[in-house]
Each structure stands twice: as C-alpha cells, then as structure tokens.
Amino acid sequence: MNETDANWTVITGSTGGIGGEIVKILAARGDDMILVNRSEPKAQTQRSKLIANYPNLKVELITVDLMDTAQIDTAVDKIGAFPGRIDALYNNSGVLTAERVLSAQGFESQFAVNTLAPYQLITGLRRKMARPANETPAIVVNFSSSAVNAQKTLELGNLADPEKVGGIMGTYAQTKLAVTALSAALSDDLKSDNILIRAIDPGATRTAMTTSGNSAMPKPLQWLATFFFSPADKQAAKLVDGADPQAFGSRSGIYIANRKEKKLPKAAADAKMQKELVALLERLLHG
Predict the structure, then answer these.
(1) Where are the alpha helices (DSSP H) in the chain?
(2) CATH no., domain 6-286
(3) What is the mean pLDDT of the chain?
(4) What is the pLDDT of residues 139-157, one digit of tens each?
C-alpha cells in the first residue's frame, strides 16, 4: 500500500444508535472510516463532528438506500474506488417494522436491509478486503439479535416477500436468523481470502428503534426497553471487541452473544439450509 492509502472500516447505519457509538470508539483509536447511510445531511453532520475532534482522521461518506440493490451496486463501486483496502465491515443497519413495505425490487424491507444488503456488501467488497494468509485477517460483523433464539425454523420460501409481516419475534427475527446463518455459510469460502466473518448479538439495547413507539415492538417490551435495556455505548463496545480478528482464537463463522461464543441457533446451523440460503440470495440478486 502507498502512504496515501488507508485501512478502512466500513460501517452501515452509522448516524445513530449502536452504529453511532461504534463510530465514536473507532474514531478515538484512529480508525479511518467509510460511513454508509441513507441520510446525507445526518452523515455530513457526523463527519464534521468527527473531523473537528480528530483532524487527522479520514472519513468518507456513501449515501445509499440499503433497500435498493441497484443503489448498493453503485455504493460498492464507489467504495472500491477509494485508495487502500477494507479491514472491517460492520453490517449494522437494520429495519424493525410491522408494516408491509417493499423495496424497488419487490423485496420486503426487513429482508432487504437486514439480510440481502449485508450479503451484497460482503460479496461486493470481498476483493477490497482480501489479503495474504500471513497478514492479520479482515473481518465482517453481521448484527444478530437475541430474537433468533425463539425461531424454530428458517422459512426460506417466505423470507423475501412474506405474506404477513410480523414484529420483533416475526419477520424481523427471521431476517436476523438468516444473516446469522449466512455468517456460518460464508465462513469457509471467505477464509480463502483471509477474511473472517462473525454474527454478533449486541443484546437488548435502548435505541430509537426499541423505545420510540415502534408498533413492531410489543408495548411491554417498549416499557422494558426504556428502563432496563442497556445503553447503545455499552453494547457498541461488545461489538467492537467481537470484531477483533485475534479474539475468540481467530475463529470464523461463529455466533457471539454477551462477549461469549455461543452455539449457533439450531435453525441456523443446518448446512443444507445454509447452502439453500446462499443460493436464494444469489438468485434474487443475479437471476
């Protein structure tokens, strides 16, 4: 690499909640970042504050609606044009809703953002993350959820466009189960490019998504979130720790919760299902 190149960390959904707290942690330790968000004004404000506090920090912005696969393709090309390579990809952006919203391509919004977009970013940015086997691995962090543990099966045939959209224990949980399974499904293949991948459950977190009257959150859970869920900065620290390539014995394809490696949820651990999931995502993206 040249002196002008950077070792980038890519974070989706960086302007609020856990994503915003992750950015603060990474900025304090001097990590150069590419922030991927839907709102350009919010991202510009975030960047201005970061540069004011850390003048030598490199911060690039990508504006994209992660519901739109065409926009993601464009974003991948823009990220690929930055000099340097990617050390870490945090697939943080998430949607939790009880409303039926379809993407431009006809995919249910939670599936589009929580499952399909991470896969598209992983595959699209893989070349920029690849490195020789004797170097410290790059790492992909997929955001899981404790909601996956209540899911008995992954309903692949109902994933992209479910007939009925449920809340946190329904459609959302299915999309998070899928991205958790995806981490295991891609592990062996990504190892050939010296890239690790992990699914990390940040734990119950107090954010706008969980406390602002979101109808996808049952009212008792909204009340609990306000008083008992952990603040975003505390949960962000867990995610940054889990994203250390040398942590957890440099293992890949694992599921981490509360800073401990856990067994993959049974519904995500089936190798046949994992292959079918990847085949589904490939078919939806490339026909």
Answers:
(1) 17-28, 40-53, 69-81, 109-111, 117-129, 171-191, 208-211, 219-228, 232-242, 266-269, 271-286
(2) 3.40.50.720
(3) 91
(4) 999 999 988 998 999 999 9
Residue 106's CB is within 10 A of a number of other CB atoms, namely 10
Q: Give strand pairing partners of 138.
A: 195
Q: 66 in helix, strand or coil? A: coil
Half-sphere exposure of 228 (CA within 13 A, CB side): 5
* Structural contact between residues 68 and 113, judged by C-beta atoms closer than 8 angstroms: no
What is the spatial distance between Cα 285 and Cα 225, in angstroms, rounded to a whole number? 36
Helix axes of 271-286 and 171-191: crossing angle, nearest 10 degrees: 100
Crossing angle of helices 271-286 and 117-129, rounded to 10°: 90
What backbone torsions phi and psi does residue 7 show, to the nearest 5 degrees?
Answer: -100, 100
- Structure tokens of 79? 């990220």
Q: 253-283 burial, b for 16+ CB within 10 Å, e for fewer? A: bbbbbeeeeeebbebbebeebbebbbebbee
Q: pLDDT of 200-253, one tens digit each?
A: 998 765 566 655 666 665 656 654 556 456 677 888 999 999 999 999 999 999
User: Rounded to whole angstroms, how far apart are CA atoms 19 and 142?
Assistant: 12
What Rg value do the Cα atoms of the chain yield, rounded? 18
Phi, psi of 261 (to 5 degrees): -75, 130
> What CA–CA distances, in Å, run from 149 to 134, 152, 262?
36, 8, 11
Q: Which of 260, 233, 235 is nearest to 247 (CA)?
A: 260
- Roughly how many angstroms between the first and final C-alpha of the chain, as a whole number? 36
